[in-house]
Amino acid sequence: MSDQNEQPENWLRRELPDEVPVPVPAPAPEPPRESVTGRQRLVKGLWPPRVTRAQLIVALLLFGLGFGLAVQVASNSDSDSALRGARQEDLVRILDELDSRTQRLQDEKQGLEKQRQELQSSSDQAAEARKQTAEKERQLGILAGTVAAQGPGITMTIEDTKGTVKADMLLDAIQELRAAGAEAIQVNGVRVVANSYFTDSGKSVSVDGNKINAPYRFKVIGKPQDLEPALNIPGGVVQSVEKEQATVTVEQTDKIVVDALRQPKRPDYARSSSQ
Prior knowledge:
Elements: H1 2-15, H2 38-46, H3 53-84, H4 88-121, H5 125-144, E1 149-159, H6 167-179, E2 184-187, E3 190-192, E4 198-201, E5 204-207, E6 210-212, E7 216-221, H7 224-231, H8 237-243, E8 247-258
Antiparallel strand pairs: 1-7, 1-8, 2-3, 2-7, 4-5, 5-6
Helix pairs in contact: 4-5
């Protein structure tokens, strides 16, 4: 019996192996490597960019410089386009005005040189100096508005029924006239001098605190052939005023009287160094 019971166990040992082999999966094939070109390496090196603080400051400075140049070019283009669109006769007037200004400066230079020569050659230099001093005092009095003046010039009248003409437009007219050689100016009975100022006062304008109302009448002493073209240049005083639905008339005359006077103001602190 014992032999019969042991026979199946030995049979099982012979039929079943001690270790069952486990199949090992084969390794997955590696994907083929993509070849990296030089252009891809360059892009990878440049992006994302690595910006330092110094580079950022330089970039901001360059941007500001470029913006300023662009604004300057745009402003020059605007002025060039204004002249480019002007008529031929307007351009001729502008050139004539520039020539007149140059001639005035040359005349002033020659006058000063003549005075110097007269002082150097005069036998009585003291009398000549007093004569020139009196003449200079008269000229300065005209410029300061303390002396009446007369001479050739123009009369400009601005009719403003709607109250659209403002103080800055009248000040622009004064500056244009001065640039064209105006030597004495009076507006509605108020003498305009170097330190005069214009302010808006409701629907009217004040000159040095004196209220004036339309129509605004300018009495100007100077060379009429220079004064009138200066007001009629493209984009000048006449066109600016007419855009505000006001009217401007300019008349040349051989005699303009500017008799509005300013009281001389004594300085509070300044004194002559000769005292």
